[in-house]
Amino acid sequence: MSALSLRRVAWSASLVALPVVVGAQDSVVPNRGIDPLSRLNESTRYSIELLFDSAKVAGLPTWPLESKALEGITKRADGRRIVAAVRLVFRSLREARSALGPGATNDELTAAAGALSVGITTDELARLVKSRHEKQLTYPLVVLSDLITRGVPRDTASQTIFQLWQRGASDDDFQGLWRGVERDIVSGTDPGVALLNRAREIPSRGPPTAPPASGARPERSENPNP
Amino acid sequence: MTDELNSLDPYVRELVGEARRPVVVDPSARHRLMEAIRLEPAPRRRSRVLDWLLEPRHSSLSPVASMALAAGLVGIGILGGLAIHRDGRLSTEQAPPVGVGNPHLPDSGTARAIRFVLIAPQAARVSVVGDFNDWDPSANPMSAQREPGSSGVWSVYVPLQPGLHTYSFVVDGTHFVPDPAAPIAPDDGYGHRSSVVIVRGSSL
After folding, report:
1. Mean pLDDT of the residues in chain A
2. pTM score, whole prediction
């Protein structure tokens, strides 16, 4: 190969590869220079800011509320609907906080709020908290909400997830469970049957540890699945 | 002829007789021979292309061209590393940390580049919106892959902080589509379905 050809190859490789690599690092930081809620009319904005204040007083994170409002703006919902959606998030977060206790992380609160919105009760959430074993509830709650949304009967989903949680199932277990059930449902298996079959494949990870006496725990625990 | 034979030495005569004796061939011998030939691997011939590739030759490269070649190879390597599919993800691909923060989430660790993928052959443009970009459709437009056999595959890498994120795809600016490969988020309150991704990190 001549030197000229090699040069052509070198320049072509660099010209092709470098822009793609640079393009892979898209910035996600939103433009915060403009208040995103300024797109709301005055009345809607006032109602939402009241909910923000209520959340702060209750010790709840406000960003899920703001995110819900922005989601509504992007989805071109009218002001009344946006306020209703934000209010629902606020109520769900408040109930989730009540059920999970003050030690719950923001992710757990968000996941629990989602579970409440698909019909899980605060008693069921509290039962999960009581049998917690120093692991985050985020994964099981996200999977629980998804399963119910996909058609698994509420009671079947709740009991199965609770049993797996008690048996010490890991985040990977819940992730694998979700993937398997989703695949089975797509293949035509009854959602409830799919869940029960897949849950049987998960081995017990040991007896659950006793819950902490106070029910409180650190704000954020270490990653259980490094 | 017979007289000549008789006049020969007995030993020679025996040899001649042995040579003249008709040979009896086993009827299956031909078949066995052909079978043995078939089983014998054919000799491999080096192709002309291989000969051309293996032929030693001299080449020269300027320092600038060498650096450009090295940069290109490193870029391809990085791209390949980012594109490796890994287990241990709930929905989208999670690449190594890239160190970009999200003002919405607690500073609980290093961000990870998450690859969002949607197959939408009919779409003219696709983007991902979620709590990580203020649901802004212009923040993270997705690119269509140009390789043969992968038309209609839209993807984008987005750095996300560890934690729970809700998101959706926006197709052609108006259609909100949940990620078929991720858990479904509960009702969004606006009549659409969204998806959930959990980014693992030091705090989750």
Report:
1. 80
2. 0.63
Q: What is the pLDDT of residue B70?
A: 84
Partner-chain residue, chosen from A17, A71, A138, that has the shortest CB–CB distance to B75: A17
Structure tokens at A206: 């040991």
Which one-letter DSSP state was computed for residue A211?
A: P
Residue of B nearest to A146 (CA): B184
Condensed to tens digits (0 to 9), the pLDDT of residues B107-143 reads 445 888 999 999 998 899 999 999 999 999 999 999 9
What is the token pair recorded at A202?
Answer: 């998960």
| Closest residue on chain B to A64 (Cα) | B131
The tokens for B15 are 């040899």
Pairwise CB contact (< 8 Å): B135 & A74: yes
For B193, what's the count of Cα atoms within 13 Å in the CB-facing half-sphere? 13
Cα–Cα dist A224/B104, whole Å: 24
d(C-alpha A143, C-alpha A125), whole Å: 14
**Chain B stretch 8-67, residues whose beta carbon is closer than 8 A to a beta carbon of chain A:** 57, 59-62, 65-66
Ranges of H-type helices in chain A: 3-23, 42-57, 63-74, 79-100, 106-117, 122-130, 138-149, 154-166, 171-186, 191-200
- As given in the structure block, the two tokens for residue B111 are 């961000």
Structure tokens at B52: 């051309």
Closest residue of A to B71, CA-based? Answer: A14
Nearest CA of chain B to the CA of A171: how many Å? 9
